[in-house]
């Protein structure tokens, strides 16, 4: 089949009806943290059946986003009054991680959606946040984002009661199959940034359909051109629509920069999920298919009796246990910040730069550990599965390709430097687009 996009280009995708049975099966949302994690496991089990084949086919993931919609996972963080799960970020991270165990691409789409769907909660007014939560949850929308800070900013031009976005972004995760897209740019004549949501399916959002990278192949992370996309001033997040200026009570405080550590911890849970998936996949392969080495001088009948095989798997297991514990602890820190400082503007204003910086260092620590462990494990499993495991039909390579692709998002060396300054000089980082 083909997906008719907003600019008339067609791309192949699987028929979403392949997952139709789950719309009824998952008609009721989970009602506890445990049941949300169970739902994520169920989604992971469905995706695991053909994840390798879908990676090879590289079709647009419209069907898989439909599966996420059926599951309710897109709503896990949203307020209950609009049909959400009202779970904390720690559960959002865990369900993202679980989905990524089976399919890194779909885990990434889920994680990015959770960040973008809550953008207004951080950089918008309470009224804007409430209005957008209602819109997103009641329509079960999937959210994409055209916010790549390495590119030139989109140009924003004021026009009567609207602002108009124009520009180009090399990366735009999930946009092609999204209902709404988060845009971000700079208002002409100023250095002020504006976030806003826009309907994806409109002539001014032109996708290039050029994502064909070695990993995370089903994330639709290709480029997009934005031409004349107009948004009402009232939807300029954190701005006063009458004065047409940023509201310092919303955007001039440390709370408004929480999007960055929040999404960086999504990255770490994505890496962790992919790595856990790789270790599980490799373990099953070794038990079933790996042969013992017959020329070592201490020959064993089975690979599972080989000392080096056991030692490597044991070491990977230990390091992943530590990484999981660190990621969970960092998720708890995110929960604490949002629990203490979300709400009205007076409450948000109480978050200090130091507290925000301490959170960023929890997240940076997790990024370093999950990157290092993820790359070592997803590449290292081939040492204990054997040469036949490199076959494309086995599908073990996709885990390494996925994690290698995303860990290049921003250099982890800068996270190490940042943590070094924290350790030696007790300095917390200044907020940036990547910190």
From TrEMBL:
Superkingdom, according to UniProt? Eukaryota
* InterPro entries noted in UniProt: Acyl-CoA_DH_C (IPR013107), Acyl-CoA_Oxase/DH_mid-dom_sf (IPR046373), AcylCo_DH-like_C (IPR036250), AcylCoA_DH/ox_N_sf (IPR037069), AcylCoA_DH/oxidase_NM_dom_sf (IPR009100)
Alphabetic keyword roster: Flavoprotein, Oxidoreductase
Ranges for the Acyl-CoA dehydrogenase C-terminal domain? 266-409
GO MF, one term, reads:
flavin adenine dinucleotide binding
Under Pfam families, the record lists: Acyl-CoA_dh_2
What is one GO biological process annotated to this record?
A: L-leucine catabolic process
User: Which SUPFAM superfamilies does the UniProt record give?
Assistant: Acyl-CoA dehydrogenase C-terminal domain-like, Acyl-CoA dehydrogenase NM domain-like
* Name of the protein: Acyl-CoA dehydrogenase NM domain-like protein
**What is the species of this protein?**
Lentithecium fluviatile CBS 122367
